[in-house]
Amino acid sequence: MSTRSGDMHTLLAKESEFEGKLTFQGQVRIDGKFSGQIFTRSPDDSLVIGETARIQAELNVGTVIIYGTVEGNVKANRAIELKKNGRVKGNIEAPTLSVEPGSFFEGSCKMDGSPAAKPPAPGGERK
């Protein structure tokens, strides 16, 4: 695999299945079946869940873009994007959430913005 910034690394093709713990750096796309845990090493890392993907896992990633199906809790340091036909059954947590029409979400959502995004405290200045 190449390690240049911006490269997409395909982890699992459509007919592949994997069970275990995945820790990665950079960008990874999953189009097959995955069961277990997925972690990224940096808030700049991203995971793409392809249309044919079926994920049963706990995710703790930088950014996740979901076109397929995820069953499990999803935590993102930057953003979660739930695309048309994407499905999440589990709790999600991220500073930014994007949900397209035609997607499905069942669970709870927690959004904590960065300190710069929080409104000023009474008295005027941001803290």
From TrEMBL:
Residues 105-127 are annotated as: Disordered. Residues 117-127 have a biased composition (Pro residues). It comes from the Bacteria. InterPro entries: BacA/B. Belongs to the bactofilin family. This is Polymer-forming cytoskeletal protein. It comes from Hyalangium rubrum.
